[in-house]
Amino acid sequence: MACFVQDGQTVGAISYAPDFKPSEHGVLIHFNCEDIDRSIRQVMKQGGNIVIPKTKIQAEGKGYFAVFADPAGNHIGLYTD
């Protein structure tokens, strides 16, 4: 397992388990990004596919989101204000 530490606090971790299989049916995590258009271009450049294009969040004008599939098929969300 690899842990990510910021200011002495663990803020994330990556682990591997042989029983975990990539899937579009897993947990959908979202990452906040400063420039969603640039992030989408980077996803495409790295072999990902857009599942839900950049979409305005209608509730309270909270920004934009998009969902992409990584090359293994996992769905991952992007969010920006």
Provide an overview of this structure.
This protein is mainly β and 81 residues long. The protein has one domain: Roll (2,3-Dihydroxybiphenyl 1,2-Dioxygenase, domain 1). The protein is 12% helix and 43% strand. The strands form 2 sheets. The chain has a 4-stranded mixed beta sheet with strand order 3-6-5-4, with helices on one face. β5 and β6 form a beta hairpin. The longest helix is centred in the middle third of the chain and has 10 residues, at 36-45. The model has no long low-confidence stretch (mean pLDDT 85).
Secondary structure layout plus pairing:
Elements: E1 2-6, E2 9-14, E3 29-32, H1 36-45, E4 49-56, E5 64-69, E6 75-80
Can you give the helix content as a percent range?
A: 10-25%
- Our count of domains comes out at 1
| Content-based structural category | mainly beta
Identify the quaternary structure here. single chain
Number of strands: 6
Mean pLDDT: 85
Characterize the overall form: globular
- What CATH first level would be assigned? Alpha Beta
Distance between the first and last residues' Cα: 32 Å
The CATH architecture category equals Roll
Instruction: Give the DSSP E fraction (strand runs of 2 or more residues).
Output: 35-45%
Neighbour order of strands in the largest sheet: 3-6-5-4
The CATH fourth-level homologous superfamily: 2,3-Dihydroxybiphenyl 1,2-Dioxygenase, domain 1
Put simply, the count of helices is 1
The SSE order reads EEEHEEE
Rg from alpha-carbon coordinates: 14 Å
In the predicted model, the low-confidence regions spanning at least 5 consecutive residues are: none
